[in-house]
Amino acid sequence: MTTNEPDADVLHYTAFSSHPDGGNPAGVVLDASGLDDAAMLAIAARLGYSESAFLTGPPEELAGEPGRTFTIRYFSPQAEVPFCGHATIATAVALAERIGPGDLVFATRAGTVPVTVTADADGTFRATLTSVEPRIEEIAPEELAEALAALGWPSADLDPRLPPRIAFAGARHLVLGAGSRERLASLSYDFERLTTLMRKLDLTTVQLVWRAADTVFHVRDPFPVGGVVEDPATGAAAAAFGAYARELALVPPESVLTLHQGEDMGRPGVLTVTLYAGDPKVRVSGTGTRMPR
């Protein structure tokens, strides 16, 4: 029986940090079989996190170990999204605490996403998701100009070494390179104007990137289409960025990238992006931990 009332056992986890005050919080419902779409959206809106995850049984056609294979759906406070990396990591850690580390398989709207959970030496769980096959595309000059206008960024503030592109690895993200750490730190944008453009281009976030070293980046992700100003740690965008960096030969085809996100929000997190030569898919790894309610 489904219901429009948000009555479910909601867990609170953060992803990409082993500390409750870091990373990106997500609501996690390990059994959403009694919830309809309206109830899931209501829970996500009440929590106010950038996304929350809801598990049900796997589709019949999805092969995987019984009890470790699921359908997963993601809701922001305003709408369902096709894929969410941080809520996937959070859910995988929550499951590992209950059924042990190992391999999981999630059926998402964007495709099948395998996740492997391991335990660090101190007992902290670390989850690694494998993206769907990514793709990169150009952005039209007039749409780029509108994005910069909405952000309040002069074009001179862009880093010419990081060309603007739309990148996809489960969800679409506009990647823009910041010319300095100061440019990245100063984020004050036109919420409605950016929302309008993002809906037109079917973007989940705009990923703003500053390159600190060859394989080290600082990132921020405005997320107005989800009803929040900024996402503290964005696994889907990290996967998309890994594909972007490889496609444009910004890093070697076999690389491990470190993305720092959330520092400017007071919720620091670390996302590890692994690229393998000859494999188009991208791995995104991070720790997670339960948060007090």
Helix content: 10-25%
Number of strands: 17
Q: In oligomeric terms, what are we looking at?
A: single chain
Net shape: globular
**Major β-sheet profile:** 8 strands, mixed, barrel
* Computed CA radius of gyration, to the nearest angstrom: 18 Å
The helix/strand class is: alpha+beta
Side-by-side strand order of the widest sheet: 1-2-3-4-6-7-8-17
As residue ranges, the low-confidence spans are 1-5
N-to-C CA distance:
27 Å
Supply the number of helical segments: 6
Order of helices and strands: EEHEEEHEEEEHEEHHEEEHEEE
Mean pLDDT: 95
Brief overview:
Helix content is 23%, strand content 37%. The chain is an alpha+beta fold and 293 residues long.
Describe this structure in words.
The protein is of the alpha+beta class. Helices cover 23% and strands 37% of the residues. An eight-stranded mixed barrel has the order 1-2-3-4-6-7-8-17. α2 packs across α6. The chain is globular. The N terminus is likely disordered.
Indicate the topology.
Blueprint lengths: L10 E5 L8 E6 L7 H11 L3 E6 L12 E7 L4 E2 L3 H15 L2 E7 L2 E9 L5 E6 L4 E3 L3 H11 L13 E4 L3 E6 L3 H5 L5 H11 L3 E9 L2 E8 L4 E4 L3 H13 L7 E7 L7 E8 L2 E12 L3
Parallel strand pairs: 2-3, 4-6, 11-12, 13-15
Antiparallel strand pairs: 1-2, 1-17, 3-4, 4-5, 6-7, 7-8, 8-17, 9-10, 10-11, 12-13, 13-14, 15-16, 16-17
Main attributes of the structure:
single chain, 6 helices, disordered N terminus, 23% helix, alpha+beta
